[in-house]
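> forwarded from #structure-qc
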């Protein structure tokens, strides 16, 4: 799948089949994240790849009991290191995670970006150092459903041309 198709077809998947992700595919997905740009090339991101069923269940509980998360083959926890980029670690990690999501989508996997979690609890479960920030969790797996596209704002409400508020039209 090409990049534009991956962007336009990506959906938040919350139902997964009980099927492992091929190791080569998981490596490719992580490489997509690793290649993400970062401010000043500081690369403040670190990903914790969780495949263990018990840990996935604990992370689902730490994510306000979103039990569906544990059904994914993998939960990737995106960390930002403020010591490497105090101002941009969150944005840079978000970019890496989006690359991961698009890479997984292009290979035919379902994903869901999870932002609702108890950060101290996630850190405790995975032994994450206090100075690191948990930016997001992402489930990855074989989708058991393909959700419909959700509504988006119309282009004139989303973008302006030349100056804010000037109708976008090319």
């Amino acid at each position: 799948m090409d990049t534009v198709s991956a962007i336009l077809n990506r959906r938040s998947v919350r139902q997964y089949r009980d099927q492992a992700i091929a190791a080569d595919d998981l490596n490719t997905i992580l490489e997509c994240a690793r290649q993400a740009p970062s401010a000043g090339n500081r690369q403040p991101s670190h990903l914790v790849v969780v495949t263990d069923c018990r840990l996935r269940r604990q992370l689902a509980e730490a994510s306000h009991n979103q039990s569906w998360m544990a059904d994914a083959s993998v939960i990737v926890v995106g960390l930002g290191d403020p010591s490497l980029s105090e101002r941009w670690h969150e944005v840079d990690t978000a970019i890496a995670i989006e690359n991961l999501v698009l890479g997984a989508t292009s290979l035919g996997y379902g994903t869901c970006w999870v932002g609702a979690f108890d950060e101290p609890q996630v850190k405790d479960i995975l032994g994450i150092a206090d100075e690191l920030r948990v930016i997001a969790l992402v489930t990855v797996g074989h989708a058991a459903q393909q959700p419909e596209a959700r509504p988006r704002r119309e282009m004139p409400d989303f973008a302006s041309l030349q100056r804010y508020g000037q109708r976008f039209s090319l």
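QC bot note: The beta strands are 45-50, 74-80, 110-114, 133-141. Residues 3-158 form a domain with the NADH Oxidase fold (CATH 3.40.109.10).
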